[in-house]
Each structure stands twice: as structure tokens, then as C-alpha cells.
Amino acid sequence: MKTKIYTLNAPDGEIRYVGKTIQPLKTRLQAHLNAAKRGKNHRCNWIRSLLKKNDSPIIHLLSEVEGDGCKEEIEKIAYFKSTGTRLTNQTDGGEGTLGCHPSPETRKKQSEVHKGNKAYNYGKHPTEATRKKQSEATKGDKNPMYGKHRPEAVRKKLSDANKGSKHWNYGKHTPESVKKKISDANKGSKNYNYGKHLPEAIKKKLSEAMKGNKNSNYGKHPTAATRKKQSDSHKSDKHWNYGKHTPKAVKKKISEALTGKHTPETTRKKQSEARKKYWKNKKEKRNEKMV
């Protein structure tokens, strides 16, 4: 994949913005002009100021590089800032928001402006044709994140920023009426995944991606306090399946689906070994406590 590193220049040639794109420059410039109509950042304000004077920014190609161009963009932004260029970039470049730290007052103001019917797309729903078009436009290598992986440092920063009370949803609970509404909207044929089945190739790929140390939970064990909490939350009427009974029609369907099927000998042997190991470990632990 090739990425273009470009600048947006004022009509007098002054460099005001550094960016990267895999799109044609003409398409990227048009995207900037469209974003400026409703955007509320430094770059959009600058572009709007030009448009009011019947001017327009000039897009200029700096270089074309292999890969996502994150490193090159960061280097160019750092270089131009070091020379005193009045860039409108609010971040240090790359795929994150490093270098951009709005104040709590600004964040609150931005939040209030986009709440409820103040949001520009409040009450609007894209048509089926539009949704399909959007889906096709971001599939596979057309997706801007295709083949990219966040660095370990960025992933750790994101993780830390969402832990405990820092998480935006910390301490909040969805009202029962909202839960019911969400549940009803996803039942039966209303569910977007209704009647769909993953191909065997994808199921195998997902399985391989979660095996052994690739699993995010590999080698981790819940604490005794966590296990007790989980146990208590599933006891008696707290259990999600408490008081529910499988309808006879469903039982019959399950029975018919399993008729004539037998667990392979290798699987049965594996299950047997796992059970033996489990009870052996349990017995050893019990004996240790008695000593």
C-alpha cells in the first residue's frame, strides 16, 4: 500500500496543514472542503476563512511512501513546527490523538453541543442503499485501518484510560425500559445476524486466533473474590435462566438435530483425560488441606 504525504497551503504558498492519504489528492482536498462546512477545529476554521474570500487551500504532494505513512507524517509535522510554521494540525500525526489535549471545559462544551436534537444527524437514518454502499466502501483493503495494528504503547494508553472510574460508562446502569427496547429490537428476524452462519473457513480462523497464548485470557485466573462474586450473581433467581423452561418444540428440534450424531473417539478420549486430570488435582488439593 502506498500513502501520499501532502500539505495544504494558503494561496500565498504558506504551509498550514500536513496530512496523509491513500486517496487521490483531488478527492482528499474535496473531503477537507466538505468537512470545513460543519467542522469546528483549527483546520476547518482556516479553510472556511479562505472560502469566505472566494479562495481555497492548495493541496501539494510532498512524497509518496510505502505503508501507512504514520512515521513520515509525524516527522514532517515535527519538522515544520520546529521551523515556526503555523500549522493547523492539532495532533502530532500518526493514527492517534497525541499532542491534542482539550481542556475539561472544552470537552464539556463539545458534549453539550452534540446532545439530543442538537446533533446534526438527530432522528436521521441512512437508507438501506446508503448502508450497503458504506459497507462496500470499507471492506477489506478499502478500509483505512486494513492491515494496521496499534503499537503496544498506544494500546496500553487506551487500556489505562478506560480502566475503573476513568471509563465513560463507569457506575452507569442502563434503565430497564431501555434494556427491554434493545432486547425487542434484536429478537428473531429483527437481529442483523438472523439466519446468517459463518463460513467454516472463518470459524476455523477465529478458533486459531483464540488458541493458547493468543487468547487475551491465557494464563489468567480470576481471584477467589471474583469467583465468589460470579457465583453469587448466578444463584437462584439472579440466574439469567431462572424459572425459564425450554419449549417442547425447541426440545424436539434439538433432539432431531442430535439424532444419529456421535462424539468422535478422539474427542471423547480428550474429554475423559481432562476429567481425570481435574478430579486428580482436586483430590490432591483436598489431601494437602487435610495434612
Write the layout of secondary structure elements.
Blueprint: E1 2-9, E2 15-21, H1 25-36, H2 42-52, E3 58-66, H3 70-82, H4 104-113, H5 128-137, H6 152-161, H7 176-185, H8 200-209, H9 224-232, H10 248-258, H11 265-290
Antiparallel strand pairs: 1-2, 1-3
Helix pairs in contact: 1-2
Your description of this structure?
The chain has helices spanning 25-36, 42-52, 70-82, 104-113, 128-137, 152-161, 176-185, 200-209, 224-232, 248-258, 265-290; strands at 2-9, 15-21, 58-66. The longest helix is centred in the last third of the chain and has 26 residues, at 265-290. With 291 residues, the chain is mainly alpha-helical.
Strand content: 5-15%
Strand order of the largest sheet: 2-1-3
CATH topology of one domain: GIY-YIG endonuclease
Count of β-strands: 3
Give the C-alpha Rg: 28 Å
State the end-to-end CA separation: 65 Å
Biggest pleated sheet: 3 strands, antiparallel
> Could you tell me the mean pLDDT?
89
List keywords for this structure.
291 residues, mainly alpha, GIY-YIG endonuclease, 3-stranded antiparallel sheet, 11 helices, 3 strands, 8% strand
What's a quick, concise take on this entry?
The chain is built from eleven helices and three strands; from the N terminus they run E-E-H-H-E-H-H-H-H-H-H-H-H-H. It has a three-stranded antiparallel sheet, sandwiched between helices.
